[in-house]
Batch of 4 targets.
Target 1
Amino acid sequence: MRRTPIVVVAILSVGLLAGWWLARDDSEAPEYVGQASADVSSWRTHSDSQIGWSLRYPAIWHLQVEGPDQNFCNGDTVVVTNFDGDLQHPDLGSGSCTGAWDMLHLRSNFVIVQLEVPVDVTPSSMSGQQSTPLSLDEALKGHRIGQFGVPKGVWIPVYMDEGHQYFVRVWHGPDATSQDMTIADGIVASMRFET
């Protein structure tokens, strides 16, 4: 058996991947906001009575609010991140769009919590959590979208009633701190929905 070529190819592949990771340019990546308090009583509240939701988040974390887009790819969305800067959707060219975020240039310690009104798919009363507080312990595994740098993450379909349906999504990088993950869980648990 000749395993030498396979071993050499494997070692070269790992070396090239490690070299790419170390050489990538983080200068364009948004800055980490720093360690936040997990004490929910010190957090800010964001609410929208028209949509019927609210959530709490650490004051130093970044809040991004978006309405529905003109291509109907995205509904009302609130995103809370542990870095300073808005997420952007990838440019797919004219007439095309995606609800995915471009996460290719984020630092490896990122944490993203998203609450959205779904546009094309809605949770059913059989599949969604129907009461609060929500818990990441009951979240479903997400899908990786490699071309945009989106890790698997987790998601929770929320079905309060026929007119109040939502998706909660959480993504994090490989170097996210346990404190930031605890905060992400706290943000999800703080979410409330009016019916």
Target 2
Amino acid sequence: MTLKFIISAFILIVVLVSIGYWAGLQNFFLAAIADPSAKLFEKISLDRLVLNQVREFKVLAQKNRDLELYQQELLSRLARLEELDKENEFLRRSLNIKVPPSFTKIHGSIFSLSSAPSGFQVLLNKGSNDGVAVEDIVITNEQVLVGIVQEVQPSFSKVKLTNSPGSEIMGRILGASTTGIVQGNADGFLHFELIVEGEDIKEGDVVVSSGRDNFPASLILGKVEHIQSDGGTLFQDVRIKPAFEYFTGRVIIFHHQ
């Protein structure tokens, strides 16, 4: 029985080969075997491509972060250079300011502005550790009077501005002999007191310190903005716009020796 089966199978194969069917069956079986391998190879290739793309994305992301950090470093360097330029310019200009004999000069900066019930205040980045004391005088590089030191801490100081209520400075009109008391007011302006009718004064005049008190002479206080004369009173109402603008920046401190 087995021999007959083998002989029959052999004859069948010979017939199939002779008529061309054997090659088709062979291709069918080979394709059936190769197809899963091809799909597996394709999947492995796709996974490898995705993995390579992820790696490239990580590399690009890291390069982008490095570039951002480098850009920030350049900006920081530029800011430091700009700050040094400003500091050098400030120091060069401050050399032209003559310090009165009874004062020494300290360089500082304003870093905060505030309005309190007692008046307008600024904070300096210099304190008792730097030699600053109460009643020291603060001016800008343009010799504009900012105010006087009211309170001192080791590392900072509070400065009462010239336009604060209770502030008084002996002043005069630049280029004229008109003098009086310049007082601060809650409205934020300075007021020129004791200016009698007929005095040589007009809107637009510059008011400076006279030097007849504890303040050095010729510090700029402001500009006359309004003059009101009632006719029935002895003194005029003279309002001055302060020359000091609220800002954060460098100042000079005149310390009483």
Target 3
Amino acid sequence: MKWSSHACFEDYLCQNVPHGNAFRYLYCNARSLKSELKFEQLKLRAFEIKPDIILIAETWFKEGDSNFFVLDGYCLFESHRTVKRGGGIGIYVRLGIISSLSVIIETSVSILQLKIRNLSRTEHVVLVYKPPNVTCDELLSCLESVLLSVKEIIFIFGDFNLNLLDSNECPNNNRDLISSFNLIFVRSELPTRGNSLIDHVIKNTYSEDSIELHVIQDDFSDHSWLLLERTSVKTVQLQQTGKYLNYSLLEDNFKNSPLSISNDIVDPELCANLLSAYLEDATNKSTITYIYSRGGVSGLPWVTKSYLNLRKRKDNWYASRKRYPFNPGVLQSYKSCANLERKMRRK
């Protein structure tokens, strides 16, 4: 995990070339998004950075306000207070990303959880806002109810009002609870408001993607922006070598071998040794070494898509044969597939 600090968005844009395959999350505590100037700034940042998901804490929205803060190209999921002023959280998701609302908690702590489909995987995005007067135990109790139901990749963003730069505010028992759910802080070691590090990103260990966190200063709010870029890391399949014997080639090589046993050689052992040597030479010439991976993709030209499909059908019939050992139709289908697969390997 890498992190960097930028004095402004222009500094970030000058130093970083956008990654075409990066998935971007842009987070900030807005301290009210209801200002027309702030919303115009948000539009500008969305146009420049082109984030996939925008997470805003402290929107200060009330009932019906979200209708006036529509971001082109995004759909908005939000939760707001019904009694007191302030608070409120919202997540803008780029159109085209399959997303659904999973959890809304609007008590002393505000939590919004989305389930999204990203890079052919199901994952969860959670936005949290904990007011300063709420204890860490209350926060962790609310988070625990969310985390117990999640078994996939999860990213948690938010203003926790929990200063990681002060050990008194974040005792070890709270860190232990976070780690008990296989969660880790994606830390920048830089303050996000004044001298405090209170805006955090937390992830679980299921994701092996390359992650880069940027802390960006701006006049949008007295909180820094957090821009998280994820780049999918392709799994490199372990390459293995194998050999197969081409029987047709073996026959030709053995016929063309310089086999010459004189009539005057009557020693059976010597004849056997000569035959063995020629057979071994013909076998070596007829053996093809190839490279294959655990994914079943072979370096052999004859291993075509139809062959792999046949192998899959044979395996399926074998599993059916185990389940129904006395079914003659299943047994016959398995034998037919096995014979076809064997013939293709011997060609």
Target 4
Amino acid sequence: MQLSCNNGEAKLIDHSAEHTLRQAGMRITDSSLQLMQIFLGADEVLLSHGDLYLRLKEHSVDINRVTLYRILEKFLSAKLLHRVIDEQRIARYGLFVNAERDGGRFVCTHCHRHLTLTRIPGETTDLLKRVTADCTAHGRRYEQIAIIVWGICEKCAPTQ
């Protein structure tokens, strides 16, 4: 972490956010850096555009809603984030899910946490091989595969 002064305001800069953006070939701006810091510290929660906008404003980031949408789209294109449409048709964003590496995600429909499914990597790999083979056999080129399970997490489930 490093303290940076910009326009008379002190901000903490997390170099892991900067490193993540540089590795993806992204342009480093105050807005993109602060946004990536939010995602790196999101603690398993998927965030909506509105959530992100409010958090950026809390960090004194001068950004409008259209610019935020543009940055989110760039992060999606660079595979830094993934987007999940919830049951209320609200787009929520989280760090990119790599099904081969992570095994998939469980998304709580109450608190919007997203948790890695850790006990199925071997089975997931076999399933992914079958899915990708089917795509290839039919001349289809896939760009992303995500395994997402929606339900109620252990924190939100009523105790029995």
